[in-house]
Amino acid sequence: MTRKSEDAGRSTIRDVATRAGVSASTVSRVLGGAYPVSSATRTRVMRAVRELDYVADARAKAIAGVGTPTLAFVLEDITGPSFAHMAHGVEREATRLGHLCLVCSTEGDARHELEFVEMMRAQRAAAVILVGGTADTPEYRDRTRRMADSLASVGSRLVLCGRPPLGPGAPVTVIEYDNEGGAYALVAHVLTQGHRRVLFLGGKPDHTTAQDRERGYLAAHRARGIEPDPALLLHGDFTRDSGHRLMRRAIEAGLEFTAVVAATDMVAAGALTALHEAGLDVPGDISLAGYDDIPFARDLHPALTTVHVPYEELGRLAVRTALGRTPETPDEHLLLGTHVVVRDSVGPVS
Amino acid sequence: MTRKSEDAGRSTIRDVATRAGVSASTVSRVLGGAYPVSSATRTRVMRAVRELDYVADARAKAIAGVGTPTLAFVLEDITGPSFAHMAHGVEREATRLGHLCLVCSTEGDARHELEFVEMMRAQRAAAVILVGGTADTPEYRDRTRRMADSLASVGSRLVLCGRPPLGPGAPVTVIEYDNEGGAYALVAHVLTQGHRRVLFLGGKPDHTTAQDRERGYLAAHRARGIEPDPALLLHGDFTRDSGHRLMRRAIEAGLEFTAVVAATDMVAAGALTALHEAGLDVPGDISLAGYDDIPFARDLHPALTTVHVPYEELGRLAVRTALGRTPETPDEHLLLGTHVVVRDSVGPVS
DNA sequence: ATGAAAGCGCTAACAA
DNA sequence: TTGTTAGCGCTTTCAT
């Protein structure tokens, strides 16, 4: 007739206590670990625990002050290879540090993002990691700033990972990787091969990651005294299909170029297929380069020259940095380097 | 001198109550939604909430009986494209249904998996979804059975997704997809092209997914009265590197075959590169097929013939099925179909 | 319509 | 070494 008997299984610490003939605190102490308990009682308690298959309710522990800390990871789409790698880094590091790891895909919807962050605030997550570039509008800064403040107000922390920083004073940790630098180096490499008309398959015009890579493309040209033809700057998004479509159109439009630099490896993959479909040889007729160094880059044919970004490390670092701070820690802003991986898809201009 | 003043931000429902000059219950009622509250009070409370930027502690709500339900997703490695798609499906459906979504990568470590499931039991997760094939040993069944029971005992539910079922009586939901059938159809397609010596690049010999696909390979041969040469059955794992290595060795060893079927698209990608490195043309010299239909399959050159698996749908279904049940629901066991996607990497035998 | 009090499952300070 | 009591932050009777 006890509560337990009708609600089989959901045993509480009191059920265990009763069964072991001790008080709830004693059970708590036995389970808690380091605390003096006679080995006789300990045995009895443990037996009761086993018999009831008892596990303490983590939520109750949490509000009593001894919860498993949680960490949240917010991205647009876990399906993108680079995001997946970051997610992996985050998840690995979080569990290593004894944290639970919540995920949320926003599908690029700011409202969804906002709601989720609010939930995380309610969950008292130790940190919320926002991943991936976005349009850097005043509205963005404002909204994000608000999230940062409200998280900070409950002792949590906002981390911006590969996402535009907010300017001074915002309680955020930002971890970036050098998109412009990577693109600069990559395009410099292409130019070194003698190419002068390099098509750029970019992302959304207002997307920070896309912008930074485009900036690198431009800078590399200008550093060699070349003013790139604006007609060679195409915009789409970071998907494979975008690359395919843009490339096909460029060919059909009779655009002249001897090399193409894609904003991501996904874009490059689509572009490569379009090039093949047009009967063009890479790098014989046209050179091609990507960005991100996803695992598949090696298996494209020809193997793709690209820029390596330490995504997994980025994720790990985000977690470590966010979790390693004390209230006195100044706001960090890290910038990770990238490097060009030369493979077979870029050759000398013919 | 209130608690709040020194512990800025972490305001509780009582802080709000005080500030609004009402009782905590009233605040709870206002926030709770549908309950008669004078609009004057409501306004005062809402103002206090805003001023304090208050959010109710989700954990406290949970133990009081009104928590946000949670759902856990356990896989080997989020980095694998097919896993990522399942994860996406799970996450999407979970949020659609108002659930939070926890993730854990086990890196294939059973102990890690066990620990995580125990944590989820403590969290009172609504369901725990275990993803991906594994060695189907008695030890596995035993361990998993135990997890299923212990989850059930706290009102949670174990879901096996693309993972071997446990036999009757276990409180689990299992969602599978037809690995054997898909492989059968794929290999039948290859045989139809006249190939008689088809190399199979398999996974770990005791991995269920690998076994099922291998079984399909075998069955398709036998259905045509062909007894496949055991020397053509190679084992590795599901990675790109495994495919590359296996393929290279097979070529070096002078193995004779006119087509190769890889256990996954990743394996196929590695194999393709090895084929190219050996100067072999696909499908001119050798035909090649994969399994999974990851997005990149289209961009391999030639575009990869493969088996489409509805991974995202699988994830969504797992969530819907697990969450949609009542204690009376019989244990479901769903089997999703797959289909061959014919592209350019398989051609007639030369 | 609102407040006081009890309770959710746990831990910790205080006694014994 | 162990039990009693008082919280943790919230919801929900039960009164009023």
CATH fold-level label of the largest domain in chain A: Rossmann fold
The quaternary organization reads as: homodimer
The most extensive interface between chains reads:
A-B, 57 and 58 residues
Instruction: Let me know the CATH homologous superfamily of the largest domain in chain A.
Output: Response regulator
Q: Structural class of chain A, please?
A: alpha/beta
Span from first to last CA of chain A? 88 Å
CATH class of the largest domain in chain A: Alpha Beta
Largest sheet properties of chain A = 6 strands, parallel
Strand adjacency order, main sheet of chain A = 2-1-3-4-5-11
Unreliable spans of chain A: 1-8
- The outline of chain A comes out as elongated
What order do the helices and strands of chain A follow?
A: HHHHHEHEHEHEEHEHEHEHEEHEE
How many structural domains can be distinguished in the coordinates of chain A? 3
Write the CATH architecture name of the largest domain in chain A. 3-Layer(aba) Sandwich
Radius of gyration based on Cα positions of chain A: 27 Å
Arithmetic mean of pLDDT of chain A? 95
Q: How many beta-strand runs of chain A?
A: 12
Helical stretch tally of chain A: 13
Which range best describes the helical content of chain A: under 10%, 10-25%, 25-40%, 40-55%, 55-70% or over 70%? 40-55%
How large is the share of residues in beta strands of chain A? 5-15%
Domain HTH lacI-type (chains A, B): 11-65
InterPro entries (chains A, B): HTH_LacI (IPR000843), LacI/GalR-like_sensor (IPR046335), Lambda_DNA-bd_dom_sf (IPR010982), Peripla_BP_I (IPR028082)
Keywords (chains A, B): DNA-binding, Transcription, Transcription regulation
Protein name (chains A, B): LacI family DNA-binding transcriptional regulator
